């Protein structure tokens, strides 16, 4: 069956499905199987949001679809998912380009090249891999001296579009072809053919900009040496200490009468008090020193350093303008050019991305507070920010689309996830204990069979319980400390001090994360019996609830489990079927509660620790119109006769 139904380069999914339902006489086993696979092809189209009537069938696209989802995404078993994948891909294999042709049937120069390859001392791998390349060159009439980088890039594209190979395999094939040709160019046995060395390099997919690697070094050096110290409140925007800054202000003042001196002293004293308490109310310029309430945290320093590098790369790529100073970075014309370029590079799958807006806000802060540009320049930068900045408030459009995937069944699966992790863990412990008894004749205590992989599972279960209880930010979750634990009546409570919580000041209350009796019991068992087994002997005083586990044979002493939030969302993807990022947990809790009752905004404010209801409203008031529409449909159903 699979050999009789193959796709062409232009055939749509609907056309493939139609042929599958008509290729065999009705009622035959082949016809039934064809109809079943046709239904599954259309099912894939619905799940992937492809229009079957207009979307060209692609083996590569369907493979990627199945690779990026899990059985939990569609609520099916792993076996069913594997069957769907196998049957759909079986009929989407393209017609082999060289079906029925063998290299020994070839004539001409490339048959001679092949025979010479077999007879030479060239590595055997090239004998196996050269056939597709030689057929391609033969079919396209390309002579050996004419083979160039463009030829191999066209060969790479041919492998993708016509043969529908996976992207990684097509890359390797093109790179192997370049090595093969270069070897022949340097081998005297192939001298008569006229091959020339060819070097093909694919851009590193982790590098977004085609610019020299050191293009941002000058700007980053000034950022590290000047901007960071100012942003931390250590020096003024001119590099002065607080004493030097005050001395300069005093020197600039004209001699005044006693009453004027007293008034100036009081004003200066009030300003110092404001700086000490971090009580700057408005977003006015920092006037030299950064107030405490606006000083950058380490994560902010790192992210804005990346922003600087991005701006330098974007400007060089756009017109080879090399930004070397913060003054150049905040020039209004440069700011507009950066904004235009970033706007043009917005991802197609996330047109409402706020990345450009974040960079423009950062540049605006530098222009106003650090460089202290004149009002005209600030007005121009403000207009650029308005034109290219964020056009929406609250949760980003892409994140809303992810939240909409959490149906009632998936919400239940998420709520049950910590208990399911624990249940799976308990079954594995029972299995290991029984295996030990069969081998040694004695049943060991449960704790004896725990290794570091099982302890990590306990960590995941505890982290999932904590996230469902309060959804702290990822740094708060991974960095929980033992000293923040409080025990009352057998129940544990985590109290994260205010300085460790975003937007909270020293005088604010801590973030409270209460745990119920069952979770507290699991936590107690983990602390007494399992956590010590995770620690290195030289790291007995590690202060973190989730200490850093060994990685690649190494262990970071005194550190915490940085990758825990990422492993947790991997579990969500595997067990619930939706790929989220750690911070989306917070939005998810608000979504779950508001989906149940849209009037729960004040309760969601308290749950997520927002200081004001305005923040909660900004993020969740328009969380999803489908909630309202669903209630409207329920109302209509109730009114129908």
Label this structure with key terms.
single chain; 641 residues; mainly alpha
Topology:
Blueprint: H1 13-22, H2 29-48, H3 59-67, H4 71-74, H5 78-90, H6 109-119, H7 124-139, H8 149-161, H9 167-186, H10 217-231, H11 242-252, H12 258-277, H13 298-319, H14 326-329, H15 332-344, H16 355-370, H17 375-388, H18 397-404, H19 408-440, H20 452-469, H21 474-478, E1 485-488, E2 491-496, E3 511-514, H22 517-534, H23 564-575, H24 584-596, H25 601-608, H26 613-620, H27 625-639
Short description:
Keywords: DNA integration, DNA recombination, DNA-binding. Helices cover 58% and strands 2% of the residues. The protein contains 27 helices and three strands.
Main β sheet profile: 3 strands, antiparallel
Number of strands: 3
Could you give the order of strands across the largest sheet? 1-2-3
Tell me the strand percentage band: under 5%
Order of helices and strands: HHHHHHHHHHHHHHHHHHHHHEEEHHHHHH
Structural class: mainly alpha
Number of discrete helical segments? 27
> Runs with pLDDT <50, length 5+?
275-285
